[in-house]
Amino acid sequence: MDKEIIKKIMGKKEFSDIPESLVERVIQKVYNKEMDEREVVKKTRALLRKNLAAFLSRNLLKKKLLETERILRSHTSTRERYPYYELIYKEILRVVEEKEPSIIDLGAGINGLSYDYFLINGYKPRYIAIEAVGQLVDLMNQYFETHDINGRAIKMDLFNLEEVLEVVKNTDEPRIVFLFKLIDGLEIIERDYSKRLLLALKPLTDLMVISIPTRSLGSRKKFRATREWLKKFLRENFEIVKNFSIPGEEFIIIH
Questions:
Q1: For residue 193, what is the DSSP state?
Q2: For residue range 57-92, what is the model confidence (pLDDT) as tens digits?
Q3: CB 25: neighbour CB atoms within 10 A?
C-alpha cells in the first residue's frame, strides 16, 4: 500500500494516533482501480469516521481527568449508557464469583473511566482496555494512574488477531471479555471477522459480554435490524448465560 496515501490520511489530527495497520485495512476495503488518490483518502477517512465516530472527539481530549463523570455523561460512546452503568455491571457480575477477575475490554473507547462502578458492586477487577484511538488510550492510562487503579489501556488494531489473543493469554484467570457495541464496526470492515474473533477467544475466556445497539447513536430511532445472524451464531457455538437490555442497548452474556 502506498505509504504516501496512508501518511495523508493520518495527517489529519483525528486520525493521527490510530494503528497504521487499521488505516491500511480500511484503504483496501474502499479501494477500486477507478479511484484517484484524492478519492481514496476521502473514502478511507469517511469509513474510519463511521467506525470510530463514537470515540473521535476533540472536545473529549481537552477535558480534565477530574471531570470523569461529565465525560461519561457527555461523550457519544457512553452518554446513553451512563445512567445505567451500576445496573449493567451488577447484572454482569451477578454471574461472576471471583471478586478480582480480569476484564479485557475490546474496542473500549473511554469505558475504562467507568471503573468505579465495579467497586460500587463490590468487585475490583484487573482491567485491560484495547482501543485503536491512541488519544483515548492515553486518557484512560492517565485516569488509571491518577486513581491508582489496577488497569491499563493498549493501542491496538483489533484485526491483528494474534496480538489480541496474546494480550488475553497474558491476563490472570478468570477472564471476562467485553465487546460493547463492537460487532457492527468489525463487520463493516471485514465480514465474519467477529465470528473468527469470538471463536478464537472461546477457549481462553470464562465469559464474554456482547452488546448491540438497538437504536442509532444520539437518536431515539430504533434499528430495524435484529442481528439474528449473530444471535443464531451465539446459540450454536456458546452457552447464553443471560440476556438483558437498557434503553438503546442489548447485552448478551455467553459462556
A1: H
A2: 545 544 444 467 878 887 777 888 999 999 999 999
A3: 17
Q: Which fold has domain 58-254?
A: Rossmann fold (3.40.50)
**8 Å CB contact between 111 and 142:** no
Burial class of residue 90 (count of CB atoms within 10 Å of its CB; 0-12, 13-18, 19+) = middle
Task: Kindly report the number of other CB atoms within 10 A of residue 15's CB atom.
Answer: 20
Q: Is residue 64 within 8 Å of 139, Cβ to Cβ?
A: no
Mean pLDDT score across all residues of the chain: 87
Question: pLDDT digits over 100-154, tens only?
Answer: 999 999 999 999 999 999 999 999 999 999 999 998 899 899 999 989 999 999 9
For residue 255 the three cell numbers come to: 459462556
Q: Which residues pair with 87 in a beta bridge?
A: none
Top-confidence range, 14-28, 39-53, 200-214, 224-238: 200-214
Q: Is the peptide bond before 174 cis (omega within 30 degrees of 0)?
A: yes
Q: Which amino acid is at 194?
A: S
CB 167 within 8 A of CB 177: no
> Is the CB of residue 184 less than 8 Å from the CB of residue 217?
no
Give residue limits of the domains in the chain: 3-52, 58-254
The DSSP secondary structure of 85-135, one letter per residue, reads: HHHHHHHHHTT---SS-EEEEET-TTGGGGTHHHHHTT---EEEEEES-HH
Question: In whole angstroms, what is the distance from residue 64 CA to residue 69 CA?
Answer: 11
Helices marked H in the chain — which ranges?
A: 3-10, 20-30, 37-52, 58-62, 68-74, 85-93, 116-120, 134-146, 161-169, 183-189, 193-201, 228-237
Cβ atoms of residues 65 and 73 within 8 Å: no
Residue type at position 216: S
Residue given cell 449493567 in the structure block? 88
Q: Which residue has the cell 484487573?
A: 126
